[in-house]
Amino acid sequence: MKVLLEQDVKGAGKKGQIVEVSDGYGRNFLLPRKLASPADAASINAANIRKSAAQHKKFQEGLEARELAQRLSGLSVVVKAKVGEHKKLFGSIGAKEISAALLAQHGIEVDRKKLTLGEPIKSLGKRSIGAKLFPGTEASFTVDVVAEE
Predict the structure, then answer these.
(1) Neighbours of 64 (CB within 10 A)
(2) Which one of 17, 75, 117, 128 has the minimum C-beta count within 10 Å?
(3) Residue 19 contacts residue 2 (beta carbons within 8 Å)
(4) Closest CA to 101 of 61, 62, 72
């Protein structure tokens, strides 16, 4: 019996796949639990359309990430922070602050989870920061931490 999987099924396959299963397994387990639907021509066609739409969406996301990487490369962002004696920061500068500064100064929105700091910034000066925007698409830019007056 051929079925179209509606969810990932351990031992059978991933969501959206058309798999051949035994008649009893399909009729008694997969179909009643709505884990799969019978693979007729209409459901196969619908699955192919969903698959091509997902591929197109992923392609578009890759294009947008490459465009964003070009805009980010070589960019310089200034982050102001309170400092104490010996030019030591109160607290630290993290990805959240850098992401907010990118949006405020350049109008570029980058998720803080995509920024790679290594460790939080705890002193004044310039640092090179990386951003992993998409698999295989990375960019780097400079963050200049200055004292707030």
Answers:
(1) 13
(2) 128
(3) yes
(4) 72
Q: Are both 27 and 94 inside the same structural domain? A: no
Residue keyed to tokens 């992993």: 132
One DSSP character per residue, 75-126 reads -EEEEEE-B-GGGEEEEEE-HHHHHHHHHHHH-----GGGEE-SS-EEESEE
pLDDT for residue 87 is more than 80: no
Q: Give the structural domain span for 15.
A: 2-61
Tokens of 28: 């008694």
Same domain, 72 and 28: no
Residue 145, pLDDT > 80, answer yes
CA distance 39 to 27: 13
For the record, the structure tokens of 124 come out as 């004044």
Residue 100: burial class (beta carbons within 10 Å; 0-12, 13-18, 19+): middle
pLDDT band at 74 (very low <50, low <70, confident <90, very high): confident
Phi, psi angles (nearest 5°) of residue 58? -65, -40
| Inter-residue contact 128 to 121 (CB < 8 Å) | no
Q: Are 36 and 71 in contact (CB under 8 A)?
A: no
